[in-house]
Specification:
The chain starts with a helix and ends in a 19-residue tail after the last helix. By secondary structure, the chain is mainly α. It has one domain (4-146): dinb family like domain (Four Helix Bundle (Hemerythrin (Met), subunit A)). Strand 2 and strand 3 (114-120) form a beta hairpin. The chain has helices spanning 4-22, 41-58, 77-96, 100-104, 121-146, and strands at residues 63-65, 106-111, 114-120. The protein has 5 helices and 3 strands, in the order ααβααββα.
């Protein structure tokens, strides 16, 4: 078994859950934000929809200039989900092609040509591609809860699915 195989299995399972949450984003609330300094609902959902492809693409090279991705919020929630589906497909292809040697190689994130972060690529996949998405999915579920949107099960039944919780 290759090192990437269990990561791809987790990625597949978690992506399905993330897609369920993204599909609940109400188009008429894309501009809503819980605080003036917070991302809007649309900005957060779009960030989740594009980040897997961006990260999987970035680690195909030894270095990457951080902060260069400009995310444009689509006009509707369906477009965000479609963007997510497309980007997940690309990310899976890129990750599947990575060898064990490549996963052990060092990747560096740079700002202005200066390295600010270095780690083995497998660590970047775990910390940024996977955990980063889970973090933002949690934020998104909190946004949706504040908007009164019934949530699906993420890691067990939600209060919306089980009134006894």
């Amino acid at each position: 078994m290759r090192m990437i195989d269990p990561i791809l299995m987790e990625f597949e399972q978690e992506s399905a859950t993330t897609r369920k949450v993204l599909s609940l984003v109400p188009t008429d609330q894309l501009e809503w934000r819980p605080h003036p300094k917070a991302r809007s609902l649309g900005e957060l959902a779009t960030h989740i929809a594009v980040s897997q492809k961006v990260i999987a693409s970035a680690i195909q090279t030894p270095t990457y200039a951080l902060g260069e991705v400009k995310e444009t919020v689509p006009s509707g929630s369906d477009a965000i989900v479609s963007m997510f589906d497309e980007n997940i497909g690309v990310a899976k292809q890129l990750l599947h092609a990575m060898s064990d040697d490549d996963l052990h190689s060092t990747w560096s994130g740079q700002v202005g040509g200066k390295t600010v972060f270095s780690a083995p690529k497998i660590g970047v996949i775990r910390a940024i591609l996977l955990n980063h998405t889970y973090h933002h999915r949690g934020q998104l579920s909190t946004y949706l809860r504040q908007l009164g949107v019934a949530l699906p099960s993420i890691y067990g039944p939600s209060a919306d699915e089980n009134p006894f919780m």
